[in-house]
Amino acid sequence: MAMIVVADNQDVTSLGIVYICNSLEHAPDVKRVSGAEELVGELTLSPDAIVVLDYSLFDFSDKNDLVLLLERFRYVKWLFLERELTEASMYARCCHYERVGVLWKGCSADELTSALNSLLADRPYGCPQVKSSLHLSGKGKEKKVWKWLTDTEQQILYAMVQGKSTRQIVGERKSSIHTIYTHRKNIFRKLKVRNVREAVRSALQHGLVDPIEYYI
Question: Is the separation of the CB atoms in 176 and 170 below 8 Å?
Fold first, then answer.
């Protein structure tokens, strides 16, 4: 059975998660880690582990560090603990990974148990609170903003949300890089943003895309 790695810098919280992990019907081994280097060490030894991670409290230098871990350890499953929907861009970078789940950090012990059991059964998990918050953040705005974008612009924005680079989009669409840059500029202008990060955030906030659907 896969090991569970609890990656959380709050001692009380991480000990509580460890206790719930050890209370599972078929409890796997559980390890606590407090830093990215220690996490990499554990995943090197257990490349099929389940990681319960509070990204906001961990010592990653930026979101790319997390994406690199997702790429490096392709058999690891992840459960992100979220206190606020302030890491929407992190969702967007990870949304094309089917082995990622999201759980509200203020959830009940029963809900954490359900999430862990789902991951142990190879079923990523998205809790109702996070789904609801993401849907509500775009309520009443979707039609107004979405109609501003052409079909092509919607598809390119969709690709941005999936973390694809401009060169990847060029290759997939068999278009010139000049054409894709033109579409990007139009998307930025219509969404009133300055870069890809802001465009992805705007797409999520307006309900144009729902990252939870990509997780599961």
Answer: yes
